[in-house]
């Protein structure tokens, strides 16, 4: 029997814990899968080449992260309602007819983590969402459905305005932001590069939770800045990563993994992780030129 093959695409991608997460899911299911990291150069054609090469070799599914989520949406032949609403995709599913179906599990993952692992009530909460790229697009509708009162802000205010109009929410420039938000969510890629979004420190006055979609071995620059400027609590995006991955896994395989024990395994090493595979030896690789 051929081993099912999956991967996560991004740039950068060497930091990704997705291979560990999905092997833990497979262990829960009682099966074995191959899951690796793949990087492509940051342009539409290179990403399309990487996807064509991967699925052309018989792969079953893929996750997609920064900065390729909108490209992934455009490449797919079919789209879920969640992907259509977001205009971006973080999950690609190989269909029996050779086509690709796009979905977006980011919003479900974020809401799951906030409500189930961060003990946060979103109903009526004033939420500031920083960013207007694929990561932000994927979480707006689920946050609104959970009852959040959402404000959007981005370095390029025009881009924020265009996205806000799509969802009928408020958009503000960075330099006019002030306090009064219950939750501040960083959906920019800044923390991946050690950069803090250029928001005033007053944004975190009376903030109950500052949440960074990025994650790492230590707190991110966003989390540290938020703590220094009044945020009562911070969280990184590891829980969101696990929750959105669980939804992707369900879409691929029809099995719904338990998320809490996987988050615990990754954050505290309280559960044995599956052994490494040859896919881990080369942390990432470039696909060949498609010409």
UniProtKB/TrEMBL annotation:
Binding annotation for NADP(+): 81, 131-135, 213, 237
Pfam families named among the record's database cross-references: SDH_C, Shikimate_DH, Shikimate_dh_N
Enzyme Commission number(s) of this protein: 1.1.1.25
Domain Shikimate dehydrogenase substrate binding N-terminal positions: 8-92
InterPro entries for the chain: Aminoacid_DH-like_N_sf, NAD(P)-bd_dom_sf, SDH_C, Shikimate_DH, Shikimate_DH-bd_N, Shikimate_DH_fam, Shikm_DH/Glu-tRNA_Rdtase
Domain of life: Bacteria
Keywords: Amino-acid biosynthesis, Aromatic amino acid biosynthesis, NADP, Oxidoreductase
Binding annotation for shikimate: 16-18, 65, 90, 106, 215, 244
Catalytic reaction annotation: shikimate + NADP(+) = 3-dehydroshikimate + NADPH + H(+)
Group of enzyme by EC: oxidoreductase
Residue intervals of the Quinate/shikimate 5-dehydrogenase/glutamyl-tRNA reductase domain: 120-190
Active site per UniProt: 69 (proton acceptor)
SUPFAM superfamilies noted in UniProt: Aminoacid dehydrogenase-like, N-terminal domain (SSF53223), NAD(P)-binding Rossmann-fold domains (SSF51735)
GO BP field: amino acid biosynthetic process; aromatic amino acid family biosynthetic process; chorismate biosynthetic process; shikimate metabolic process
GO cellular-component term (any): cytosol
NCBIfam families with a match to the protein in the record: aroE, PRK00258.1-2
Protein name: Shikimate dehydrogenase (NADP(+))
Gene field: aroE
């Amino acid at each position: 029997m051929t081993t099912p093959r999956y991967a996560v695409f991004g740039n950068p991608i060497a930091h990704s814990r997705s291979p560990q997460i999905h092997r833990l899911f497979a262990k829960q299911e009682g099966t074995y899968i191959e899951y690796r990291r793949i990087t492509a150069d940051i342009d539409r054609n290179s990403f399309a080449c990487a996807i064509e090469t991967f699925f052309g070799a018989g792969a079953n599914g893929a996750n997609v992260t920064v900065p390729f989520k909108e490209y992934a949406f455009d490449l797919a032949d079919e789209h879920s309602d969640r992907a259509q609403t977001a205009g971006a995709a973080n999950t690609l599913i190989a269909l029996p007819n050779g086509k690709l179906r796009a979905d977006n599990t980011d919003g479900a993952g974020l809401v799951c983590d906030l409500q189930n692992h961060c003990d946060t009530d979103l109903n009526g909460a004033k939420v500031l969402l920083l960013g207007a790229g694929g990561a932000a697009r994927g979480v707006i509708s689920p946050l609104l459905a959970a009852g959040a009162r959402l404000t959007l802000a981005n370095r390029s205010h025009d881009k924020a305005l265009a996205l806000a109009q799509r969802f009928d929410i408020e958009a503000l420039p960075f330099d006019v932001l002030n306090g009064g938000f219950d939750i501040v969510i960083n959906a920019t890629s800044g923390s991946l590069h050690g950069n803090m979004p250029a928001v005033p420190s007053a944004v975190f006055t009376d903030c109950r939770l500052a949440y960074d979609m990025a994650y790492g071995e230590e707190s991110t620059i966003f989390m540290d800045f938020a703590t220094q400027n009044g945020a009562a609590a911070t969280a990184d995006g590891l829980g969101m990563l696990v929750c959105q991955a669980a939804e992707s896994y369900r879409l691929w395989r029809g099995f719904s993994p338990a998320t809490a024990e996987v988050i615990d395994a990754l954050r505290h090493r309280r559960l044995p992780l599956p052994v490494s595979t040859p896919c881990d030896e080369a942390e990432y690789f470039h696909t060949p030129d498609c010409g």
